[in-house]
Please model this.
Amino acid sequence: AQTVTQSQPEMSVQEAETVTLSCTYDTSESNYYLFWYKQPPSRQMILVIRQEAYKQQNATENRFSVNFQKAAKSFSLKISDSQLGDTAMYFCAFMRGSNYQLIWGAGTKLIIKP
Amino acid sequence: NAGVTQTPKFQVLKTGQSMTLQCAQDMNHEYMSWYRQDPGMGLRLIHYSVGAGITDQGEVPNGYNVSRSTTEDFPLRLLSAAPSQTSVYFCASGGHYEQYFGPGTRLTVT
Model:
């Protein structure tokens, strides 16, 4: 069975700093997708970035980028120039290529301080 | 284009009561799913559907029922509410590139 582990329950950084959130996963699949979702206090789940396992290039979306290490089964999220609006819970999630079910980590609470 | 909508946003039930959480999407997605979110845990899959008339169980299906009569709608029924079902419930639809989530329903069972 697939599992997703986020080892940092909570992190706090100053505005404008760079922060990296960790995620590791366990799978025997070769075809899969990885996601980072953001959940602000509004409770809405918002897709931050996704990575297809078959792509070697790390995904980037503006200030957000990932470090995808397939052999190590690691998928960390880097947020550059952090902003107050980045304060949220961040969830790492895994999806097999054969279905659409998401398997979630427990989340990391990120606090950006002014 | 409303995306995924859920009603109600909040609900309080007494133990033993039943209710239906509504979910609808207007993106013509075949795949829809229900998750529950509990403190300190990631979301857990309750039930999912790969198209009208086709549903299946996820990780935590006990106490819940679903049906899918149309592509747009995927209601979740609580048959006899229990305090252990106090949670936030999310409906989602989509594919490999993104799952779109509704705003969630906070359910409290007393």
Remarks:
- The two ends of chain A are 41 Å apart (CA to CA).
- Chain A is about 0% helix and 55% strand.
- Chain A touches chain B through 21 residues (CB under 8 Å).
- The mean pLDDT of chain A is 95.
